[in-house]
Amino acid sequence: MAVKPFKLALAGISAVGLAALAACGDAPSDSNGGDNADASFTACMVTDSGGIDDKSFNESAWAGMEAAKAENDDIEVTYKESSNTDDYDPNLQSSVDDGCNFIVGVGGLMAANVTTAAQANTGVGFAIVDGTPSDAEGAPVETENVFSIQFDTAQSAFLAGYVAASQTQTGTVATWGGMQIPPVTIFMDGFAAGIEQHNTDKGTDVKLLGWDAAAQTGTFLNSFEDAAAGKSTSDTFISQGADILFPVAGPAGIGALTAAEEAGDAVNAIWVDTDGFESTDYGSKLITSAEKGLSNAVRDAVLAAYDGEAGNGTYVGTLENEGVSIAPFHDFDAAVSDETKAELEALTAAIIDGSLVVESPASPAAS
Amino acid sequence: MSDSTATTEAPAEPPAPDTEGSEPKPNFMRLFGGYLTEANSVMVTIYSLLLAFLIGAILLIVSDEFTRSTFSYFFSRPQDAWYASRDLVVESYTSLFEGAILNFNTLEAYRAGDAEFGNLLRPLSETLTYATPLIFTGLAVGLAFRAGLFNIGAQGQLIFGMMGALIVGFSLDLPIWLHLPLAIIAGAVAGGALGAVPGVLKATTGAHEVISSIMLNNIAALFLVWALGTAFLHSETKSDLVSKPVDDSATLPTLLSSLNPSLRVNLALIIGFAVAALVWWLLSKSTFGFRIRAVGFNEHAAATAGMRIGSTYTTTMTAAGALAGLGGAALALGVSSGGITTNTALDYGFSGITVALLGRANPGGIVASALLFGALKAGALSAQPDVPVDISTLLQATIVLFIAAPALVKAILHLRTPRGGLVTLEAKGW
C-alpha cells in the first residue's frame, strides 16, 4: 500500500518527462516546414466568420484554392479561420509568418486589414475578395501587391429578379439580407431592377418586399449564421403574400428554404452565390440561383499569383466573362416558359453588349 | 530514463525542510509522493490539466483522417498507428505552443539574423492580448463566487462596458490623460449598472441572480445589435454593422509596438494586473471583502452577526459588473478601437466563468488561468488548420469539467482524500 503512491509519483514524473522530451525532440522536424513541403508556392486563405465549411462564401473560396492546387502540384494551400473581426490581423500575420506566398482575404470586411498587411509585407502577394484596397476609414489606397476580386452580381440577380417576376402567382416577391454591406445589397439592387424590367416590358405589377432600391433600405438579419431568424423573417414575408423568396445571407438563407418548404407548393425560393440545387438540400424549392463564380475567380487568382502576374490587378466577374450567371432551372425547367427563356437570353446579350446597364450603388467601381 | 531523473533528483534536494522530526524518517520523496497522490486543490488542478490534454490528444487522433486510417490496419502493423498518433499529437501541441509562447521558426530566423526581436515576442503578445479581457471577466465571476453568487451575466456586463467606453471614447474631445481614464471608467460604470440589476433584484425580491443575469445577457446582446444600427453609434464610413472608431486620445496605448507594430498587447493588461491586485486586497484586507466572504460562507451567520445581506449582494454584483465592464472597455478601447461589431465580445463573459472556476475564485489563480486560456486561444488561432480551432474551447471545457469534479479526478487516478476533504468550489446561490 505504501508503495503505490511512490509508483504513481514515478509514473507522473516520467509522463511529464516524456512529454517534455517529446516536445523538445520534435520541434526541429516541424520547423523544417510543417506540411507537404515539396511545393514551392504556398497560397493561404483567411476566412471571414462562418468557417471553411459554411456551405457558402468561405467554402466556395476554399474550393477555388483546392482547384488551384489540383491544377498545379507545385502549389500548396492552407487556411486560417477567423471567429470575429479581431482575428483578421493575427490570422493575416501568422499566414505571413508561415511563409505564405499569396494570401487571400475572403470578405470585404477585412479589406483594410489586408491592405495594411500588404503594405507591411511587400514581398508577399495578397488578394481581397469582394473588396478593394482601402484604409480603416474605407478610403481607397494604392498598393502594389493586392489583387482585388469583385463580382458584378447585380447582373445575375437582375436575371433572377426577372425570372421571379415571371413566376410569381401572387404578384409579390420578397428578399432579405444578412447584413447591409455592398456584396449583399448589390444582389438586392439587381433583383429589384430585374423585377422592374419585367413590370415595364410585360406590363405586370410585381411588388418586392424587403428592399427599397431607391432609398437603399430593407430587411437585414445582421447575421449570416442565424437560420432561425431567417426563417421567422421569411414567415413574415410569406404571410404578407410573398410566394418567391430571395435570401441573400449565406447559411442563414437556409431559413428561407425551410419556411418555403413548410408553406407548401405555393412558395418557392431563389438561392445566391452557388447553385442551390446542388449545394443545399432544398433543390426542389429552388427556381434558380444567382451564382457568383467565386471558386473559379479564386483559382485563377492563385494560378496568376504563381506565375507572378497577380500584382495589384482587378478581376470583376460579369455575365460577359461568366464570373456571374444564373443557374439552370432544374426542377422548374418546365415551369419557366420558352418565352421567358428567350427574353432572358436577349437580356443577357443586352447586358453583355452594354445596351442594358444594371446599376447599383454597390457595383464594383473598377469595371 | 525517467527513473534516473527521479532518483538523481532526490539527493540533489536538501533534506526535507520539515523540522518536526518525530515521525519515522519523513524523507523528501515520501512527503513529495504523498503530496502528489493526494487530491488537494493544487494537484487536482495539475491533474485536471494533464487529463484534459490527454483527452484532447485522443480527440485529435480520432478527428484526424490520416491517423484514423492507420488504425484500420492496426493489427497488421500497429507501429503505423502508434507513430502517426504520436506525431500528430506532438505536432499539434507543439504548434499550439508555437502560437502561444515561442515560434521555433521565428527563433531560427532570429538566430540567423532574418527576424527582429519583436517578431519573437508576437506569440506571447497574442496570448496576453487574448488573456486581457478574460482577467476582467474572470474576476467579475470570481468576486461574485466569493459572496456565494453565481454571476453568469459577465457577458452582458462586458457588452455594456464596451458600449459605455465606446460612447465616451468617440463623443468627447479631451486630452488623452483625461479622455482615456474617463472612457475606461465609463466602461466600468456601464458594466456595473447592468451588474447591479440582478443584485438589486435578489436583495429586494429574492429573484435568483442566475436567472436574471443570464437573461440580461440576451438583452445586452440584442441591445448592442440595435444600438449599432442607430446613427449615433454606427460608423460613418462603413455600411456594415460596425460602430464608429474611438478617438486616438481614448485608445489604450500598446506596450510593445515600438519593437514591432504587430505586437497588439496594450495597457489594459497592466490595468488587469492592477485590478486583480486590488480585488485581492479588497477580499483579504478590507471590511467589504470580509463581509463578502462572510456572506459567502454562511449568509445566516453573517446576518446574525449584524451584516446586511441584501446590500452585500447588491454591492458585490455591482462591483462584479464593473469588473466585467472594464473588460469591455479593454476591448472597445484596445484591439477593437477601430469599431466594435456584434461579434467583438465573442464569449469572453462566459469564458470568465471557466477562468474563475479554474482560478478557484482567487485573484492570483484567475490571472494565471486567464493567461492559460489566452495562450490556448492564441495557440489555436495560429495552429490552424493543422489543429482544429475548436481544440482550445474543448481543452478549456475539459479542464473545467475536471476542476469542478475533484471526486472524478480522485477516482480516475486513485488519489487519497486530503485531510480537509475534497475542495469543491460551489456557488451557494445555486
From TrEMBL, chain A:
GO terms for cellular component: plasma membrane. The keyword Signal applies. It is a lipid-anchor. Its main location: membrane. Keywords: Cell membrane, Lipoprotein, Membrane, Signal. InterPro entries: BMP_lipoprotein, Peripla_BP_I, PnrA-like. Residues 43-352 form the ABC transporter substrate-binding protein PnrA-like domain. It comes from the Bacteria. It is found in: Cell membrane. CDD domains: PBP1_PrnA-like. Residues 1-22 form the signal peptide. Belongs to the BMP lipoprotein family. This is Basic membrane protein A.
From TrEMBL, chain B:
It comes from the Bacteria. This is Simple sugar transport system permease protein. It is found in: Cell membrane. Residues 1-11 have a biased composition (Low complexity). The keyword Cell membrane applies. GO terms for molecular function: transmembrane transporter activity. It is a multi-pass membrane protein. The chain crosses the membrane at residues 39-62, 127-145, 152-172, 178-201, 213-233, 263-283, 317-340, 394-413. Keywords: Cell membrane, Membrane, Sugar transport, Transmembrane, Transmembrane helix, Transport. InterPro entries: ABC_transp_permease (IPR001851). One of its GO terms (cellular component) is plasma membrane. The keyword Transmembrane applies. Residues 1-25 are annotated as: Disordered.
